[in-house]
Specification:
six-stranded antiparallel beta sheet; 2 domains; 29% strand; hydrolase activity; nucleotide-binding; globular; alpha+beta
Length: 312
């Protein structure tokens, strides 16, 4: 059983929950940029949330199914249709042999996730099927899809679970600017009062020089009270670093394992999906919360996903 790639799209690659436990060897975690959409796509077809999905960026692929399957999309609306019939995110659909899934006009968001019931047949690398294109491993030969690729899938003819997708997991077109909650970073106090004020009160724009490794933002420059030399220390998904030029960079799924730039903030994990769906030119504002609030938000989202998983 397989899927034939007729057109690969802009950047379509397999991701799962990431390559956890190897950062001390310098191996990035990788994984889905929007973990909520990734999890939801899997739950809609009865897969565990750890199963790999196909992450599609801005422009989706054209895929021909060689066997019947149960599929679901979640995340951005990239204009999907199955044999000419619109297929919206948040819904599962049965696919007949020979059916074609194509993506045309993007409606909103940047990343969509395609799950197949039973999962894709991929070879794990360090306990993960996530693609790390810079390293050339994981997923399908460590790269994005190409025309002519054949994607093996497991056999599964199950009916879709009866899930009611809660509002908190329904992604829709966001108003601008997008508000993202953050916590104080390790070097927060080392930035000037003006810099701290501007970071929380001025909009920042995502630039075209952004990718899965990091989002480069353009806005008010953020200055330290005095120059500092820092040792490289561990960084994580959502760490906001500020290089010498003063323009912040938010580290994303393919981030390096350490960094030496001052860290003004850390994005609350519950808001990482909002960042993942930004397009170049979109505006973002940052709002400060404390650790207790961030933890409560994280726990609430985790419990929500667990309830959906238990409803299979």
């Amino acid at each position: 059983m397989s899927i034939h790639v007729i057109r690969p799209g802009l950047f379509s690659a397999f991701q799962d929950t990431g390559r956890v436990g190897f950062q001390h060897w310098g191996v990035p975690v990788n994984g889905a940029m929007d973990p909520d959409a990734h999890a939801l796509a899997n739950l809609l077809v009865g897969n565990p949330t750890t199963a790999a999905t196909l992450e599609m960026t801005i422009q989706g692929p054209m895929l021909c199914f060689q066997a019947k399957a149960l599929i679901a999309l979640a995340g951005a609306d990239l204009g999907a249709s199955l044999d000419g019939i619109a297929l919206k995110p948040g819904h599962a659909a049965h696919v007949k042999p020979g059916a074609t899934l194509r993506f045309e006009k993007r409606e909103y968001g940047a990343r969509a996730y395609l799950a197949v019931s039973g999962g894709y047949v991929l070879e794990p690398v360090m306990n993960s099927c996530s693609t790390y294109s810079r390293g050339g491993f994981g997923g399908l030969c460590g790269r994005a899809l190409k025309a002519g690729d054949v994607l093996p899938i497991s056999s599964s003819f199950a009916n879709p679970p009866r899930l009611t997708v809660p509002a908190a997991l329904r992604f829709a077109a966001a108003t601008q600017p997008v508000t993202v909650r953050v916590l104080q970073g390790r070097e927060w106090a080392d930035f000037s009062e003006t810099a701290r004020h501007d970071f929380l009160h001025e909009p920042y724009q995502m630039t075209a020089a952004s990718d899965r490794m990091g989002y480069r933002l353009d806005g008010a420059a953020l200055d330290l009270t005095q120059p500092r030399q820092l040792l490289s220390e561990s960084v994580t998904f959502g760490t906001v670093q500020v290089p010498a030029g003063g323009q912040p960079i938010v580290l994303m799924a393919d981030r390096q394992t350490t960094g030496g730039y001052p860290r003004i903030a850390q994005v609350a994990s519950v808001d990482l999906p909002r960042l993942a769906q930004l397009m170049p030119g979109d505006e973002v504002r940052f709002s400060m919360i404390d650790m207790r609030t961030a933890q409560a938000l994280f726990i609430a989202r985790a419990r929500l996903l667990k309830r959906l998983e238990a409803a299979h």
